[in-house]
Design brief:
It is built from seven helices and two strands. By secondary structure, it is mostly helical. The protein has a two-stranded antiparallel sheet.
């Protein structure tokens, strides 16, 4: 995820109970998501495009509702990729990436419903927003949903 997720977190007594994750996992997931959503955008209006949107909707739902440990790309990262890497330089709170999954889920639910209804323009817009956010995370380690979460936390504590 974004370095600011880890660097701006101020540990408190309540933060100690939060789940910590390897930030490379969500970034790997964002890379896979970028490929899936790019393909869905290219194949918009086809059955394969709708299936890709449905798959990514399921992926986001698992990450947002069940937790990042259930997100398929995260499972693959933990079981296949992470054992081949050294330890992460730092860990991060799982709450911001989980919130980002929920934001992605919102966009993909809109895209999936629109796809089923044949509203390809709405599909294109919804998928493009989710694709842009995933690409920012994959290419630049900037998690837009994580930053939204952190901004919300700052505003809530004022």
């Amino acid at each position: 995820m974004t370095p600011s997720v880890s660097n701006t977190a101020v540990p408190t007594d309540t933060d100690c109970s939060r789940t910590q994750i390897d930030p490379r996992g969500p970034r790997f997931g964002a890379s896979v998501t970028t490929v899936v959503l790019a393909a869905a955008l290219i194949l918009n209006g086809t059955t394969v495009g709708t299936v890709l949107i449905a798959w990514q909707t399921l992926v986001f739902a698992l990450g947002a509702i069940v937790g990042l440990q259930a997100q398929p790309y995260g499972v693959f990262f933990r079981k296949v990729i992470k054992p081949r890497l050294g330890p992460p330089a730092e860990m991060e709170d799982a709450a911001p990436p989980r919130f980002a999954q929920a934001v992605g889920l919102g966009f993909l639910v809109v895209a999936l419903v629109a796809s089923l209804l044949g509203a390809t323009v709405i599909v294109s817009v919804a998928v493009a927003f989710a694709l842009a956010a995933a690409f920012l995370n994959a290419a630049f380690a900037f998690c837009l949903g994580c930053e939204m979460y952190l901004l919300g936390q700052r505003l809530a504590h004022r």
